[in-house]
Amino acid sequence: MEQYKQEFIEFMVDSDVLKFGEFTLKSGRKSPFFMNAGAYVTGAQLRRLGQYYAKAIHDHYGLDFDVLFGPAYKGIPLSVATTIAFSELYGKEIRYCSNRKEVKDHGDTGILLGSKLKDGDKVVIIEDVTTSGKSIEETFPIIKAQADVEIQGLMVSLNRMEVGKGGQKSALEEIQELYGFKANAIVTMREVVEYLYGREYRGRVVIDDAIKAAIDAYYEQYGVK
């Protein structure tokens, strides 16, 4: 596993973004783990988060794109932090763009924040996590309505590796098939478990036998076969 992935897993734990216990998801599923990107709240955290996203996007999509699109609301700080990281790490100036939930009719009018989209732009979409693909379902037509752009792919922080709406494939696989662009994550839940299970980190074992058993049972029911 790449060094930045190991660091990112520890970073999620340190930031209290990735938690283990019992959580009810928006889908109604009872999950033994939960990821909340809203817990990244400090300047130092957002700087590091942007760097991890930039490294993963660079790994999967290279530097040949123009715009990072972060869907409202959580995607807005993600797109800003990651464009800054691209400038710092790779000397590449990427524009950021996000959508508003409501169209603004005065001043800086329209549905977009940040850069406008132009014909021919190559776009990477950036999100926190995708469980069902509903966000992309809303975001895709907004992007395509603004200009004739080419969507290179989607990058999320964690691939939960559970079945999407179709009940057979993961949400990221469903997105790839439905929209025709790649969908990737900084880390997968399999990598998280592989790295943390039985490992003492900051004086405690984050994933012990009981939590591992709960995760295994969850994937028996909801995991991608």
UniProtKB/TrEMBL annotation:
CDD domains: PRTases_typeI. GO terms for molecular function: magnesium ion binding; orotate phosphoribosyltransferase activity. One of its GO terms (cellular component) is cytoplasm. It comes from Candidatus Choladousia intestinavium. Catalyzes the transfer of a ribosyl phosphate group from 5-phosphoribose 1-diphosphate to orotate, leading to the formation of orotidine monophosphate (OMP). The keyword Transferase applies. Its cofactor is Mg(2+). HAMAP family: PyrE (MF_01208). This is Orotate phosphoribosyltransferase. Orotate binds at residues 131, 160. Pathway: Pyrimidine metabolism; UMP biosynthesis via de novo pathway; UMP from orotate: step 1/2. 5-phospho-alpha-D-ribose 1-diphosphate binds at residues 26, 73-74, 100-101, 104, 106, 127-135.
